[in-house]
Specification:
CATH architecture: 2-Layer Sandwich
Distance between the termini: 30 Å
Structural class: alpha+beta
Number of helices: 2
Radius of gyration: 17 Å
Largest sheet: 6 strands, antiparallel
Strand content: 35-45%
CATH topology: STM4215-like
Shape: elongated
Number of domains: 1
Order of helices and strands: HEEEHEEE
Number of strands: 6
Amino acid sequence: MSTGYAAVNPEAYFIAELPSEPIIKNYLDGSTLRQFVFVLASKETYGPEIAQELDKSQFYEKFVKWLENQNKDGILPVLDDGREARSIQAITTGHTFNIDINKARYQIQCKLTYYQGGK
């Protein structure tokens, strides 16, 4: 992840991994159910215009609905090395984070749950 790129280019989106316990459940055969917790974030211009800020929050609302539909339809990320995605979901609402004078970081926290085969 490069936060420098996002700081220079407003409306640049990036994904950042968050610290979390990776293993949710261990199975007897050595396989595991795991999670990858991350944020989808953007660094954008910030201002007092309510309509502009509503547009930004609507992006994250639409993203949550899109994730819900992907799960419902079984359209999940394709993983490698014996891993299989089980679900992906938003675990927070989109919100403003780290506001500067005319820029802010907007983000939403998400979680990918996946199965990893034993070795």
